[in-house]
Amino acid sequence: MQFKRKNGFLSAVLIPVAFAVSVPVLAQNVDTAGKSAQQIQSQAMSPDMRASKVIGKQVKNPQGENLGKIEDLVVNVGTEKLQYAVISSGGFLGLGDKLFAYPAELFKTTAGAEGKEEFVLAVDKEQLKKAPGFERNRKPNWSLNTYRSQVDSFFYKEDTAKRTATGRLMSASDLIGKDVNDRAAHSAGEIEELVVNFGNGRTYAILDFDKAWNPDDKLLALPLSAFTFPGRPDVDIFLNIQREKIDMARSFDESNWPNLNDAIYRSDLSGYLSGMQQQSDNTGRSSGGSK
């Protein structure tokens, strides 16, 4: 995957955070309606990771066999959740170089320094053969429910229709580097990165503002609700939040990223993103914006 990046981007190293994430054993139908307290706690402990660092990572099964690598991530911009990880089989089990979308919550992630995380997918070989996949040169249109409904009906025995019908899906590779305009159609910057969490699904954007907005050329975390995502891929994303409402005091240098998994930082960020969501909701309603 090729992304638009600036020199020095992604140079910081996250401080390792030790944790374990419990993952339900994958069956052809997975019921996620009832989750144990241990699973909920594990989700809260799972790491925030930069999407561009996750793409390209190897995925193994619990036996240590290579299942392929993560080719892309698929984000639900309506619910602001990571929904699928797209994996290439790499010819495993004679499947050819097919791609498969797996629900993000089925992965177990083992924390380490940034870029050193490990991904385990508890998948039976025979089920892998039966899972709905697609050819590399015939990628699904995530705006349609055709393929995602096949994936959801394969993995979930309950709430399939609700999961499939809720929210619009977009791939991380399409979002990273995407230009962002303000409501007056003036350039506001670009999406520099997405931060994702496989445990709780939380996804937010890192925006690199243009110098007209931010002379210091810093990066700022914003919720996905801060943006309007046009249906046409050739149209830029719009920023719903007015310039004076943006708290640049929370911005950071692109060469000096915060530790995304520091407990205090994560707690503070959650409150901040919630406040920005309220700002974007109000601005979107007043300006007629929609996602």
- What is the number of E strands? 15
Question: What's the CATH class label of the largest domain?
Answer: Mainly Beta
Net shape: globular
Report the mean per-residue pLDDT as an integer. 78
| Tally of contiguous helical segments | 7
The level of helicity is 10-25%
The CATH H-level superfamily of the largest domain is PRC-barrel domain
- State the low-pLDDT regions, or none: 1-42, 284-291
Series of secondary-structure elements, N-terminal to C-terminal? HEHEEEEEEHEHHEHEEEEEEH
Instruction: Give the terminus-to-terminus CA distance.
Output: 26 Å
Decide which structural class fits the backbone.
Answer: alpha+beta
Summarize the structure.
Helix content is 22%, strand content 26%. By secondary structure, the chain is α+β, with helices and mostly antiparallel strands. The chain has 2 domains: 37-170, PRC-barrel domain (SH3 type barrels, Roll); 173-287, PRC-barrel domain (SH3 type barrels, Roll).
